Amino acid sequence: MYKDLRQTGDYTKYAKNIGWEVERVGKNYCFIKKFSIVGSVVKLQRPGKIGHKDIKILGYLAKRYRAYQIGVEPTTSEHVPLLVKFGYKISRYPSLPSKTILIDLNKNDKDLMNGMHYKTRYNIGKAKRNKLAVHRSENIKEFADLWQKNSKSWGMFLPQTSEITALFKAFDGDAKIIFAKKGKDIVAGVMAVNTKDIIYYMYAFSTPLGNKLFAPTLLVWEIINYAKEKELKLFDFGGVYDERFPLPSWIGFTRFKESFGGMVVEYPGLYVKSLLPFGLTF
Fold it and tell me: Can you give the pLDDT at residue 281?
């Protein structure tokens, strides 16, 4: 089993930079967000192996940080009986994508292309024939500003520039931006970060012209090739629509992601334990 993004040292740097505290629970990282009046939230995301001792440590941290809720998003369904035994219940609202698509980067380019929908293969070629220029960048400010500007077209009005910037800086050499340009104008961009084995498709944007020229499709292919250059094992699309926890706004981009082929992976979801007042049930 490959280590998840949320269980890496670089991700802990990111979490600290956006206001979370980090503790160890066995061999896993746990994240705590403090709130001035209501206490805090404790969360453990995509851990490796967990046992009784780890669940008890979560309880100790809940007391220490006066938590009103603990959330665990297990990597495998094997963890679920233990969580239920300790009083955790499934939530309707996971904080991480509960379903994703993984692409095996050990395949050669021909096999990767053959795994795609025929229109996706065609659109990659069409984007190239549209004479889009693709270049890699380290300019996180430019990317974050363009993402924020273009995200309004799909209903994302909350500012995300500080989170995008913090993530890029935390992963440093393991974060990459790729832009697509038509002439002098940037028409699309993607930002990915990687662990030792997996590259994650984290943020992407496209202008109306970029969509018309199939720039987003080309950029996914470029990120896949970048990951193969780094000899990474998997490409993680960072979440798709999950019928168990439906978010209708995810249906459109899920069709886009599904067109690249790959393997669908489902996670158990978010299990929570409410602790009112402030962890005193432990």
Answer: 47
